[in-house]
Amino acid sequence: MLLAFDTSSAAVTVAVADPVSGAVLASSSTVDALRHGELLAPAIAEAMAAAGCIPRDLTKIAVGVGPGPFTGLRVGLVTARTMADVLEIEVAGVCSLDILARQSSLTLPVAVATDARRKEIYWALYDGPAADGSRRRLEGPAVDRPADVAHVLAGLPVIGRGAVLYAEALGLDTSDVPEYPSAEVLALGVATGTLPVVAPDPLYLRRPDVTMSGGPKSVLPK
User: What PANTHER family does this protein's entry cite (predicted)?
Assistant: First the structure.
């Protein structure tokens, strides 16, 4: 069985799927930006129970690597890597913006914009879908203020929570667009090879808010 989950956004999304076809056997999604650590493990347990499987039935784990806020992203990646290590199975990382792009049913090039907080968005540009539904990333991922990249996204349909939050700044009509990555799409993309796989390492994009100490400072008068 393939277990897939993403915690890069305000949503905690989980799916259990057939590892070859990507057919989803059970899934759930809960939006709560402050409770990733509380929600993920129970969601995994419930999805596996609903799919009629136990941990040793898992053959692969797929996890969204962001970009996303540090805390939520860390919850998902630590869980994925720990489970994979204990079960001695493969863990595949996928850029969370790629997941959202794959969710679009449009036959046109699209842009993805998610909420990066600090009044910024994570964004990327994608080509139109291939015959298998995959999309080639043309630019990004990057993090910027909406107004600074409005000209880059102009003329493209934009999906994701960032597009909804900053629709006015981006000049968008965001009715009925996917806002959060879907674990069902993540599972399908990894099972069928239509989402590019990367190492399960966090994609933060921002520099850390803290820096390494330069060493002790002298307290003696100069």
Answer: TRNA N6-ADENOSINE THREONYLCARBAMOYLTRANSFERASE, TRNA THREONYLCARBAMOYLADENOSINE BIOSYNTHESIS PROTEIN TSAB
